[in-house]
Amino acid sequence: MKRILVSIKRVVDYNVRIRVKPDGTGVITDGVKMSVNPFDEIALEEALRIKEKGLAEEIVAVSIGPADCQQQLRTALAMGADRAVHVQTDAAIEPGSAAKLMLKLIEREQPMLAILGKQAIDDDCNQTGQMLAALWGRPQATFASKVEISGDKAQVTREVDAGLEVLEVDLPAVITTDLRLNEPRYVKLPDIMKAKKKPLETVEPSALGVSPVERLKAVKFDPPSQRSKGVMVKDVGELFTALRGKGLV
Amino acid sequence: MSKILIVAEHQGGKLNAATAKCVHCASQISGAEIHIAVFASDPAAVAADAARLAGVSKVITVANPQHANPMAACIAPQLAELAQGYSHVFGPSTTFGKDLMPRVAALLDAPQASDIMAVESATRFRRPIYAGNAIITVEVTPGTQLVATVRTASFDAAQTSTSAAAIEGASPSATLPQHTRFVSVSAARSDRPDLQTAKKVVSGGRALASADNFKILYQLADRMGAAVGASRAAVDAGYAPNDMQVGQTGKIIAPELYMAFGISGAIQHLTGIKDARTIVAINKDPEAPIFEVADYGLVGDLFHVVPELEKLIASNG
Ligand SMILES: Cc1cc2nc3c(=O)[nH]c(=O)nc-3n(C[C@H](O)[C@H](O)[C@H](O)COP(=O)(O)OP(=O)(O)OC[C@H]3O[C@@H](n4cnc5c(N)ncnc54)[C@H](O)[C@@H]3O)c2cc1C
Predict the structure, then answer these.
(1) Is B55 a pocket residue for ligand 1 (Cβ < 6 Å)?
(2) Type and span of the H or E element at A106
(3) Could B134 and A235 be called an inter-chain contact, meaning their C-beta atoms sit closer than 8 Å?
(4) For residue B227, what is the domain's CATH number?
């Protein structure tokens, strides 16, 4: 079966104002809105579009983390994923561990593609997709803004510092998404009802033969240094004078 | 003792400034021995530049026609091979480094610290998370090899020195994969300064309302010798190409002057500019959040401000 594996990470919603706990042990997540990582939503949308073109048959959404991740997997199922796998763990999961766990699922599911968000908006690591591709020994096309599948190949346009780069990769491959790849669809109420009946499997990391280790420990969290508010100028002349005074224009 | 291997980034036979910033970051680890690896079809010129960076004691070159358009899948196994025996492997936090370094880390089974912005010791680093809304200090278990990308906006470039380090050729035995092929790169050709290293940046947001209107910013930029940036909203709308995007998912920059025209100041945008020395904001909404971080704010219509400012600069040339 032509299958696509999609990552679904549960993260603090991007609209939430992040605050560091006063004791520096983390950021405040109690009572805060949680969502699917926006880049993962784009990954799922892309998988859905590939399936809708008849180029894939099944989409499997994967989330790794505590029990609450099932909320985001239900959202993924409501968006259109066919089934979900929840790797349930309360352990800290580094990108390296996430990649190892996903590799185990890939060995089981044999997908033609794994599509992941290029980064998660909580830890901003931007690592898991590349690590997964390395461990799998397969191509990676990161920061994708366009994906075209033809036969056993994909042509992927990537957003790079210089502009746009196009790579051709043999499938199976790993693709990571950039923001301009697509605009994810909204979930409709009947789909949420239907999603409740879709299969959601739970596995423990140990059942996959992986024991997550934390090799990069969080020592402390600090709020960023704040820029102080400057002055308001009344017109362009005053602005020009100020900048000229600093030798900037 | 720390032994650090840095992968060079280069374009058109020239070393990229990002590499010199990685070297500066690495040199903050006390007593570090710093080497640079250059993957290129013809590495000579790049290696010569790298050899003159202060603090670098060796440059390792890997020449291969396949490196003309560097691809992570191709470089990673070779870099991982060269990285044996090093305590740290660094690359810049550019799209080149972001693509490559995690692939290297996985091959080395090493953890990666992304976007390091400060060095506290050989094993302790600070990095931004949550789009820069929090800074985390991370510590790697001593004795564990560490891969990292360096947030270039946080470091000045290493100085160049008069003496040059030794340059050595290497030929890693890794077989290069054939499963990934370079097709093309469409780089916007521009005579303007490079956005990532420019001293001055003029940037436009959704308010510009069309690609055509962006021309007024290009004119102002040319008058000032500045690079041009854009918000995500402006890029998404097609007013500016993607390589101009500034912010969490675009370029993180630290120019001496950043001028934001018609940009509201969303947190994801501010992440990209908070290391700028002087921020100027022009916005017609006095409540726009960009004013909270601006050194100079002007409430006004950019379509009047831009030409007027350009005229003032021209007549006071
Ligand atoms: C995961 C994620 C990543 C993101 N990454 C980035 C990123 O890297 N970079 C980025 O920029 N954004 C990013 N964003 C988007 C960000 O949240 C904002 O949507 C975006 O920055 C808004 O762009 P803007 O300020 O141009 O547009 P708007 O927010 O629409 O602001 C336009 C501003 O123009 C002003 N204005 C209108 N007309 C005029 C005029 N004639 N003269 C003067 N002022 C005028 C308005 O008052 C307003 O303040 C990201 C979002 C997400 C969710």
Answers:
(1) no
(2) helix A95-109
(3) no
(4) 3.40.50.1220
R_g of chain A computed on alpha carbons: 21
Q: What does the DSSP assignment read for B7-56?
A: E--EETTEE-HHHHHHHHHHHTSTT-EEEEEEEESS-HHHHHHHHTBTTE
Query: What's the whole-model pTM score?
Result: 0.96
Query: A191 C-alpha vs ligand 1 centroid, how far in Å?
Result: 32
Domains of chain A and any CATH numbers = 3-245 (3.40.50.620)
- Taking CB atoms and an 8 Å cutoff, what residues of chain B touch A227? 274, 279, 293
B14 and B80 co-located in one domain: yes
pLDDT in tens, chain A (249 residues): 899 999 999 999 999 999 999 999 999 999 999 999 999 999 999 999 999 999 999 999 999 999 999 999 999 999 999 999 999 999 999 999 999 999 999 999 999 999 999 999 999 999 999 999 999 999 999 999 999 999 999 999 999 999 999 999 999 999 999 999 999 999 999 999 999 999 999 999 999 999 999 999 999 999 999 888 899 999 999 999 999 999 999
**CATH number of the domain to which B143 belongs:** 3.40.50.620
Q: Identify the CA nearest to B183 among candidates A182, A139, A85.
A: A139
- Is B176 among the domain residues? no
3-state secondary structure at position A144: strand
Regarding an ipTM greater than 0.85, the answer is: yes
* Interatomic CA distance for residues A60 and A125, integer angstroms: 23
Tens digits of residue pLDDT in B8-52: 999 989 999 999 999 999 999 999 999 999 999 999 999 999 999
- pLDDT, tens digit, for every residue of B52-82? 999 999 999 999 999 999 999 999 999 999 9
Min Cα distance B85 → chain A (Å) is 19
In a domain, B229, yes or no: yes
Ligand 1 atom with the smallest distance to the CA of B288 is 49
d(CA B298, CA B295): 10
CB atoms within 10 A of CB A73: 25
Give the total number of structural domains in chain B: 2
List of chain A residues whose C-beta atoms are within 8 Å of the C-beta of residue B242: 145, 159, 163-164, 180
Give the residue, by CA position, lying nearest to ligand 1 atom 52: B268
CA A38 to ligand 1: nearest atom: 1
- B59: domain range? 3-169
